[in-house]
Design a protein that fits this description.
Helicase, Ruva Protein, domain 3; 2 domains; homodimer
Chain lengths: 199, 199
């Protein structure tokens, strides 16, 4: 006894998502069956179709956009001297939400990870170096994740940029807001200690 | 600054699902953007479309099917004397997977829940009574969930069936396999005690 084929196909589509196992995929599929009306389904299908067809990386910074050049790169009021480099397009949104950075971005599309076979050439590093030839840009802020891959990527970028006239900085790492020292992992504590400042 | 409209629409579709908040919906949407190719997206859309158009409740038992009458009701080798009553179509699949029941099913499509405004008339109870007029059926096995709603529904069904010639039984409730008494909730313990048998 198996599910009707259409339900099975939907379960398998949901199982493709990160962190979604069989049980969750079944729950989602049955939610569609039981709670989605025609309009809900059409809206969902349309969103999938549009994302597939309209969304592409910004020609300049690699941020996801439905235009050739994203709104941030196009915004002439932003401080073009600073370029903040992140691993993923999603990181741009996270930082934008804080309203605390008014410069430009560069999305690498990942981080260097030899074990996953991701080297510098698989990332948008060449595009970054190309951009940096424009002398308007004066500071490169490295905002990689605090992980082995993030560290490797930051080190790599620092090495190839350190002999230029650019100011290369890195965001601070340490104990997060609400963070409890007892529960912090070694990497966070190490960074918190390394980054200590005179009181 | 907002996501491109297509991504926003996809995030909102994902947020409709049970247990999916904004963060998870964003993760799913970005997974589509970054990892779904044309074929993946088309397969997903097709599954949604098919589920919307092909899947309906079985005319007899209410189990979800892509036919008028489901494979179980159509299977002449099954023991038609027994009807196992469940809340949801999903429960049918769970029991079928065990290969331990060879009778028929009846899906109520929920359980009585006055606080949610679900009364007996909102469930497929009338259809059950109609089915039971066929004297082939001799036993009704109540397999509601162990919850207030499940209890209410089982009591209700027992009350309207108890004066018929049908044998009305109920699945056992108690400590589950691997269950630890120290961590069991009151309802489970109550049922485990109530259901105790001579050793």
């Amino acid at each position: 006894m198996k599910y009707p084929e259409a339900i099975q196909q939907l379960i398998e589509s949901f199982m493709r998502f990160p962190g979604v196992g069989k049980k969750t995929a079944e729950r989602y599929a049955f939610y569609v069956v039981n709670h989605f009306d025609e309009t809900d389904t059409v809206t969902f299908m349309e969103a999938l179709h549009r994302v597939q067809n309209e969304i592409n990386p910004c020609e300049i910074c690699g941020n996801l956009t439905d235009k050739d050049v994203c709104d941030i790169c196009n915004d002439q009021t932003r401080d073009r001297r600073k370029i903040l480099v992140v691993e993923e397009s999603k990181d741009v949104m996270v930082i934008e939400k804080t309203n605390m950075f008014d410069g430009l971005y560069h999305v690498l599309n990942g981080a260097i990870s030899p074990s996953d076979g991701v080297g510098p050439d698989d990332l948008r590093i060449k595009a970054l170096l190309e951009r940096l030839k424009d002398e308007t840009h004066q500071e490169v802020i490295l905002a990689m994740n605090l992980s082995e891959e993030g560290e490797t990527t930051a080190m790599y970028l620092h090495r190839i940029l350190k002999d230029t006239d650019l100011l290369v900085t890195r965001i601070a790492y340490g104990l997060p807001a609400g963070g409890n020292i007892s529960y912090a992992d070694d990497m966070t504590l190490l960074k918190a200690l390394e980054g200590r400042k005179k009181y």
